[in-house]
């Protein structure tokens, strides 16, 4: 049987699938050609990440499709319920990328509180002519230790982020309408660990209390953070979004950054991907990455092997 990994798959995933008797195709097929390619090559499994969309049109056009797999967590680029109604298995890898995304959240937090994103832009331009001026401009850093991190969505990635925050000595609060409370176990290199319980609170109270806010939610119909929500936050709050574009009103965010209400933002995802707004890209108070939350070698290895094991157990 043939597997089309249209957005790529790790070497370990390919090897596991081939060992299970599958032929893996890693040719990148254009979105509008996916259905034709699947049919012409008798592909049984289509694997995607965030780039390729598997909507009703592809599902209807490909009667031989048995599995649609998403390397990662979010399934908003797949018509999941419709696929299942047609007898197609839909799989993903919700646990594989948690650590990688959580580390990127802290890369943005550290960058924001010490102005690294802006410093790295300006040091090559002015470092030799305006060293003292830049030193003064970036002198008002903030420590994360002792501050309150508000985690919106305390699922797997939210929990991984909470663990890192606790390890840094931060207070962690959370809001999640589906998870009333969760035990967070922080494990250390020598086998010791501590466990603490986080009880979900209202979004409104989290926005009022948090020094920094990180979002870990699926795609939404509307904004989670808009003008109204920004207004009730602390002055000088930092906001990080490594979840999904469209959960923050970017126009309202830029306005809050310009006014000083928001100290900085860290964005890995955007309302308009893959062409984010220039007002976002050029804002010196925003730390930017191009949707790379799960893009580490370790996460991609886990994603590939987990997808392979699920496929083999279903079709093997």
TrEMBL record:
Belongs to the D-isomer specific 2-hydroxyacid dehydrogenase family. It holds the Pfam family 2-Hacid_dh_C. Keywords: NAD, Oxidoreductase. This is D-2-hydroxyacid dehydrogenase. The keyword NAD applies. It comes from the Bacteria. InterPro entries: D-2-hydroxyacid_DH (IPR050857), D-isomer_2_OHA_DH_cat_dom (IPR006139), D-isomer_DH_NAD-bd (IPR006140), NAD(P)-bd_dom_sf (IPR036291). The keyword Ligase does not apply. Residues 8-314 form the D-isomer specific 2-hydroxyacid dehydrogenase catalytic domain. PANTHER family: D-ISOMER SPECIFIC 2-HYDROXYACID DEHYDROGENASE FAMILY PROTEIN (AFU_ORTHOLOGUE AFUA_6G10090). Residues 107-293 form the D-isomer specific 2-hydroxyacid dehydrogenase NAD-binding domain. GO terms for molecular function: NAD binding; oxidoreductase activity, acting on the CH-OH group of donors, NAD or NADP as acceptor.
């Amino acid at each position: 049987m043939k597997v089309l990994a249209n957005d790529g798959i790790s070497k370990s995933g390919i090897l596991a699938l081939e060992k299970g008797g599958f032929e893996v195709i890693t040719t990148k097929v254009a979105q509008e050609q996916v259905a034709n390619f699947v049919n012409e090559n008798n592909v049984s499994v289509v694997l995607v990440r965030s780039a390729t969309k598997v909507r009703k049109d592809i599902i209807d056009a490909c009667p031989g499709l048995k599995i649609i797999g998403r390397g990662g967590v979010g399934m908003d680029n797949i018509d999941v319920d419709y696929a299942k109604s047609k007898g197609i298995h839909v799989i993903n890898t919700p646990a594989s990328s948690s650590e990688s995304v959580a580390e990127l959240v802290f890369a943005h937090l550290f960058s924001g509180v010490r102005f690294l994103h802006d410093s790295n832009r300006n040091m090559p331009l002015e470092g030799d002519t305006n060293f003292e001026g830049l030193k003064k401009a970036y002198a008002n850093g903030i420590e994360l230790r002792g501050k309150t991190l508000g985690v919106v969505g305390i699922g797997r990635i939210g929990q991984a982020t909470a663990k890192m925050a606790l390890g840094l000595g931060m207070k962690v609060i959370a809001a999640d309408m589906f998870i009333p409370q969760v035990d967070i176990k922080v494990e250390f290199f020598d086998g010791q660990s501590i466990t603490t319980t986080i009880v979900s609170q209202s979004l409104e109270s989290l926005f009022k209390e948090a020094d920094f806010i990180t979002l870990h939610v699926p795609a939404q119909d509307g904004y989670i953070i808009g003008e109204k929500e920004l207004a009730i936050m602390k002055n000088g709050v930092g906001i990080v979004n490594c979840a999904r574009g469209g959960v923050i009103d970017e126009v309202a965010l830029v306005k809050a950054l310009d006014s000083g209400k928001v100290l900085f933002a860290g964005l890995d995802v955007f309302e308009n991907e893959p062409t984010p707004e220039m007002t976002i890209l050029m804002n010196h108070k925003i730390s930017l990455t191009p949707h790379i939350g799960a893009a580490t070698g370790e996460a991609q290895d886990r994603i590939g092997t987990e997808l392979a094991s699920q496929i083999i157990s279903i079709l093997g």
